[in-house]
Structures are given as structure tokens and as C-alpha cells.
Amino acid sequence: MNNDITKIGEVKSVSGNTVTIQLNDDIKSNLPIIDGEVYKIGQIGSFLKIPLGYSILYGLITQIGASAIPQSILEQAISFSDLKNSQWVTLSLVGEQVGKKFERGISQSPTTGDSVHLVTLDDLSVIYQGGDKQASVKIGNISSSTSLPALLDINRLITRHFSILGSTGSGKSNAVGVIVNSIENKHFENSRVIIIDPHGEYSESIDEASVYQLRPSEGKKKLVVPFWALPFDELMLIFGSSLNDEKYEYIREKIVGEKKKSNATNSYGIDEELITADTPIPFSIKKVWFDLDDFERRTYKTNSFLDTDLEKITDGDADRLISNKYKPASMGSAAPYANRYAKGLLKFLDSMKIKLLDKRYSFLFTPDDYAPNLDGKITYDIDELLFSWIGTSGVTIFDLSDVPSEIMISITGTLLKIIYDTIYWGQETEVGGKKQPLLVILEEAHNYLHSGSNNISAKTVQKIAKEGRKYGVGVCLVSQRPSELDDTILSQCGTIISLRMNNFSDRNFVRGAIQDELQGLLDVLPSLRTGEAIVSGEGVTIPSRIQFYKLNHAVKGSNPVVSERWSDKKTHTKEEYSNVLKRWRSQRFYEEDHGDE
Fold first, then answer.
1. pLDDT band, very low/low/confident/very high, at 223 (cuts 50, 70, 90)
2. Global model pTM greater than 0.90
3. For the domain 136-141+145-224+379-548, what is the CATH code?
């Protein structure tokens, strides 16, 4: 191609990777036609090239107009009024082509007076098609040239983590679905992807996914999270613990004792010295409650406080959470005598009992075959659970939409901790992350990864972000409020996919996570179309403005369509409100005969 046809200007100033270009005054149009193709000049996010002997430098336009003029030139121009017909752009250099090979970074810089040219389709093909074909998945088209597919390198994308950021309605969920389906359609037969889905949006949009729900619909599987797999602090948090240190440690030691008994009952063969309250060994939470409750309620015939002197009236039932009954203690110095060694736990134990009986928590405290009996014996162990979650290749979706909001963080963190600990301790096995890598996608990440938070979710994701790549675990953060995310976690993301973003503080937060010379691109974020994104970092050959494909089955939104609902002429009855009141009082979202009892 004749270089005179594509030449549009020359270099006027160079500062590091930033180049200021003055466009030719004789350019007839901002939409020149070359070899039948229409090219746009001066579009933010589009490319220009600077030929230098055997190599060609490529850069992204980050600024246009008067703001792109260097201050020294602008001051001189004001004096001599010689810029009235000039057009200026700022270019950020991002890569270099030698022969037919394109690479990120540059080995040399341009100088003033070097000619600047349009980037043609042939040039773009060299840039975008030069990556590893086996490792690349198609997710959409390059915005400036819709005939070119936008590719992601999953090797760099997953092992170095990535984030998908954008305002509500910008297309984040569609982007997640497109990326996951592209991975699956690439026929990676041993892929493993997990999606933490707090709103139940992805169950219909991801091809051939295994979906786990608290109340599974047709074709879905039941989600259970055994309480005994939770770290002790998280378990106590669910019960609303506000105990002092002495009472807290008293309960901890009781649980450790039950786990040691279960170790013997289930023949685990674990050294007792290694067992802590956090060790994932099954134990009966009902028995712990019953024993603690019984000790608090005891009264005695004498003040010797021997078990044989108990003033028991009726026997309770640990499995049904019914307390033993004792004669009320005397107010004076006569029998029955109260237990002077009691810890004052009855208020806490009443709160604990309410949670154990609450049907909303049945997936946790009565998890089907994973629930221990009073002796700590179980039918299935965590290995069975893990095999169903990640034992086969493909996509697993944890639909947490029915999880009570007050324990969402604990449940999310526990799921992640169970899975990551499995990958960590299995790193030298065939099912470890080194042999079968794992991608974890965290939808609505800002809800449980707040800046400065110290909950189990934040701690686990921080651990994955910092060391997961060594063990084959990648994480994807999906958020509409990046400014609320822990910046330590976001800084670990090697690729950032930024969709339309209207909030100024969110855009500023993203600025801090991308390289300085590309920050001018973020000024276009508020004007991006739905599904359009600026992608920068390890996962792409070169920072790009792309348009994601549209999913065949749209991601189910969590909000009702107001116009449709308000157009519905259906009338309602008082009985329906009576039913709602019944659900409210019984703390359940569904009918008794539709539960998981």
C-alpha cells in the first residue's frame, strides 16, 4: 500500500511513551476511503502507526483537539496565531511490529518530524491475530473494525486474575456469560469454572452449567454447606455472638472436644494435637447446644454439685433441641441449689436454638447426608461434596439468591475457603490446580469485598489473589462499584475490562489500576455503548476498545420489569396477604409442603 495514501501527520513532541502529533492540514476528510474501506481519523481508542526503518510503532489515541497540544507549542501559537487550521492528537505507544510479528512494548522511540500513518485492516490483523491461537477465545469484535474478532488469552487472563467493571446495565453479566461460554465452546475438555451468583442470574444463560440452589428447580441440584466446615469464628458469627473472651473460649473448647470424639468415631486417624475448632471434622451442633444448655440449667439436691444429686424433672431430647427440665433453684440457701459453675450462656443458647430451628438455615445445619448424628457420624464427607462441585469439568454455578442476607458473606467465604483449601492441599495431585486450573468468578464482588474488610470472604479472596496463580487458581471480580472494592485485591488483577461507567469516583479508582499512558482512554467510559468495553492488561495483545457478543439467552435480571408488572390486570385477595404473614412469622419464603424438611 502506498504510504503517501495512509500518511496523516507528523510527530511534534515525544515524552516517554506519549507522542503528540499534528495532523496534516490538507486532509480532505476525517473519513478517508482506502482500498474500499472507510477509516475514521481521531477516534479515542483507535490506532495510529509510526514507521521507523525495519520496525513499526503502534499507539492508541488518548486525546484529540486543543487539549492535545503541548503547552510550549500552544503558548507560541497564541503569539503567532499559526494553529487555526491544525488538528492535534495524543498517542500512547503500546507495541512494535518487526516483520510480521507484533509484540507489546517498544525498543525505540520516534523523533520529531517522523511521519504518522493510519492503521489499516492488514495492520490490525497482524496485531490481533498474532497471539496464541490455542489459548485465545473470541468474545466480540474490535469496535473500530467490526470485521476483526476480539480475542482474550486465557492463559494470562486466568492465572493473572481479571476484573469486569461497569455501571448497572452496562453489560457486565453478558460479558461474564460470553467469556464463560467462549471457554466452553473452545472445547477445553478439562476446564473448571465456578460462578458465585448472589442474585441467581446465570442459571439459564451459561451453556450446560451445573447449578446449585437452596430450593432447586427442575434440572438443578441442591446446595448444602455443612456447618462443620465453617471456621469457628464464622460459625459463632452466624449465631450473633457477643460473648466475652472467657465464654467464647469455653464454647471453642467444647467444640474441639466434640471434633476429637468424632475423629475417633469416624476413624479419621488425625493426631489429636492437630485438631482445632477450625479443622473440618463433623460434629453434632445439636449435642453441643444440648450439653451447654443442660449445664446452665442444672439444679442440685445438695451443694456438692455431683451429677448424682441432680434435681431433674424430665429428660430432654438433643436431636429435637428440647432441654432437660430441673426444679427451679431456691432463692435462699436451701435446696434446690443452682449450678454455681454455670457460665451465663442461656441468652446466647436461646439465640443459637432459634437459628438451628430456622428453616432458612437448613442447608447449613441439616445438610441432608452431610449432617452428623449425635455421635458425629456422617453418611457422606466433604470429598463427596467437592467431587459434585468441581470433580467434573465444566461450569458450576452457586445460586445464593435464597441465602439469608445476614450470612451471605460467611457462606460465600466458606464456599471459597473449602474449594481453595482443597486446591492448595491437593497441589501435587491430579485434581490440584496445577494439573486442572480453576477459575472463580465473583459476581457483585463489592458486596463482600469492601475496602478494609476483614471477613472470611475478603481474607480468602485476598489469599487467592496473592498466591492463587502458583496453585492454578484464577479469580474474576465483577462489580458495579469498583471504588468500594478492596484495592489490594483489585491491584492483583492483571487484566481490567471496563464497561460503561458513569460514577466519577469509580472511574478514578480504575485509573489507579491501569498504566498511566492509557488513562486518557477512561474519559470515554461514560459514553460507551451497552456491551462495549475498554480492555487493558495481560489478557489482550494490545489495549483495545471492543464490543462483546450478545448472549443467545440473556442473563436474567434481578429487577422486575415495572411496565409489565403494572400492566398486569390480575387482582389479589386478602388470603394472599394472610399467606405472606404466615411466611413472615415462620421465617420462610415458600409453602410448608415445598420446603426441604
1. very high
2. no
3. 3.40.50.300
